[in-house]
Amino acid sequence: MTDWFENLVWGLLVLAIVVCIPLALVAGHNEKQEWEAFKAAHDCKVTSRIDGSVMPTFAMDTSGKAVYGMTTTPSKTGWTCDDGVTYYK
User: Fold this and answer.
1) Reported pTM
2) Over the stretch 70-83, which tens digit does the pLDDT of each residue have?
3) Host H or E run for residue 80
4) DSSP string spanning 8-67?
5) What would the pLDDT profile of 41-57 be if each residue is shown by its tens digit?
6) Contact between residue 50 and residue 86 where contact means Cβ atoms under 8 Å apart
7) Element of type H or E holding 6
8) Facing residues of 79 across strands?
9) What pLDDT, in 10s, does the model give residues 9-36?
10) Separation of alpha carbons 69 and 84, rounded Å
11) Contact between 70 and 56 (Cβ < 8 Å)
12) Alpha-carbon distance 34 to 87, whole Å?
């Protein structure tokens, strides 16, 4: 790869990261605000909680070596609202 092309690729990667991180943060904040408004408007109450978990994972790569990892699931809270639906967040 030529130097200018490699620099272009790295520059575009950095630009994508710099642009995407703030967009993801704003999207998450808006989603939380929408949920808070919905929760208040529909008289949602906590009715259940599900604990998160961490599980070890094992596999073999293409060269036959063992690969170890972890899989996680987040804790969730069940909210039952006046529309009769339970939402897990």
Assistant:
1) 0.56
2) 999 999 999 999 99
3) strand 76-80
4) HHHHHHHHHHHHHHHHHHHHHHHHHHHHHHHHHHTT-EEEEEE--EEEEEEEE-TTS-EE
5) 999 999 999 999 999 99
6) no
7) helix 3-41
8) 46, 87
9) 888 888 878 877 777 766 666 788 899 9
10) 39
11) yes
12) 14
d(CA 10, CA 2): 12
Q: Which amino acid is at 2?
A: T
CA distance 54 to 70: 7
Sheet holding 86-88, edge to edge: 45-50, 76-80, 86-88
Q: Please identify which residue in the block is written with the tokens 């070596």.
A: 65
45 strand-pairing partners = 80
DSSP string covering 59-71: EE-TTS-EEEEEE
- Residue 86 tokens, joined: 């339970």
